[in-house]
Write a structure and sequence with these properties.
The complex is a heterodimer of chains A (117) and B (114). In chain A, 0% of the residues lie in helices and 48% in strands. Chain A has strands spanning 4-7, 10-13, 19-25, 31-37, 43-51, 54-57, 64-66, 76-78, 87-94, 107-108, 112-116. In chain A, the strands form 2 sheets. In chain A, strands 2, 4, 5, 6, 9, 10 and 11 form a 7-stranded mixed sheet that branches. In chain A, strands 1-3-8-7 form a 4-stranded antiparallel sheet, with no helix packed on it. In chain B, 0% of the residues lie in helices and 53% in strands. Chain B has strands at residues 4-5, 10-14, 19-25, 32-38, 45-51, 56-59, 62-67, 72-77, 86-93, 103-104, 108-113. The chains are: A mainly beta (117), B mainly beta (114).
Chain lengths: 117, 114
């Protein structure tokens, strides 16, 4: 079955530590995204990538970093510079065939919950 | 600056009745709108979308209405079922292509009581 796999599902981190969240997709989607969900704030875009070896900052990129070395993979690193990292993190992907209606309909993974101790 | 706003954090309805979830937006460049449904500890799943060239789109029990002049859209679920209990997110973009970033609302928790 095609889909998006996020791991780990739950992660605990001590203050000052960097952690990396994994996101893998087998949908053959070109574009991948990272969102953060906090209570009462909806989904906020952290980073996105429309093509391998290229990515752009979203609305709340400070304290995060990403890489896109393979089409299937878009890992997110939460660095110690992120002031309030405790949140639910969602990875998503979409087609990137330019001009196709509905190409920005996102398919989401099941999410990773990060808790800073 | 919240460009997409869902003013009701929660909504409770009886099974079999209609559920109406509302969403307002401020950016006049938005021309494509989507609704997502999310269960706890899962990722959101796409429900239904509408382009600004339409004012209504229907898919089974789900209908989305768009009022461009009021910058308002709503999702109607009829009849509501207990399995519909979830958080519903409204999202908007300027364009439908892959480069069109989605802006999400805060979400509305729908509870359908048996």
């Amino acid at each position: 079955d095609g889909g998006i796999t996020q791991s780990p599902k739950y992660l605990f981190r001590k203050e000052g530590q960097n952690v990396t969240l994994s996101c893998e997709q087998n949908l053959n989607h070109d574009a991948m995204y990272w969102y953060r969900q906090d209570p009462g704030q909806g989904l906020r875009l952290i980073y996105y990538s429309q093509i391998v070896n290229d990515f752009q900052k979203g609305d709340i990129a400070e304290g995060y970093s990403v890489s896109r070395e393979k089409k299937e993979s878009f890992p997110l690193t939460v660095t110690s510079a992120q002031k309030n990292p405790t949140a639910f993190y969602l990875c998503a992907s979409s087609m990137a065939t330019g001009g196709v209606a509905g190409a920005n309909v996102l398919t989401f993974g099941a999410g990773s919950r990060l808790t800073v101790l | 600056d919240q460009q997409v706003k869902q003013n009701s954090p929660s909504l409770s309805v009886q099974e079999g009745r209609i559920s109406i979830l509302n969403c307002d937006y401020t950016n006049s460049m938005f021309d494509y709108f989507l609704w997502y449904k999310k269960y706890p500890a899962e990722g959101p799943t796409f429900l239904i979308s509408i382009s600004s060239i339409k004012d209504k789109n229907e898919d089974g029990r789900f209908t989305v209405f768009l009022n461009k002049s009021a910058k308002h859209l709503s999702l109607h679920i009829v009849p509501s079922q207990p399995g519909d209990s979830a958080v519903y997110f409204c999202a908007a973009s300027a364009g439908e292509t892959s480069g069109s970033r989605l802006t999400f609302g805060e979400g509305t928790q729908l509870t359908v009581n048996p």
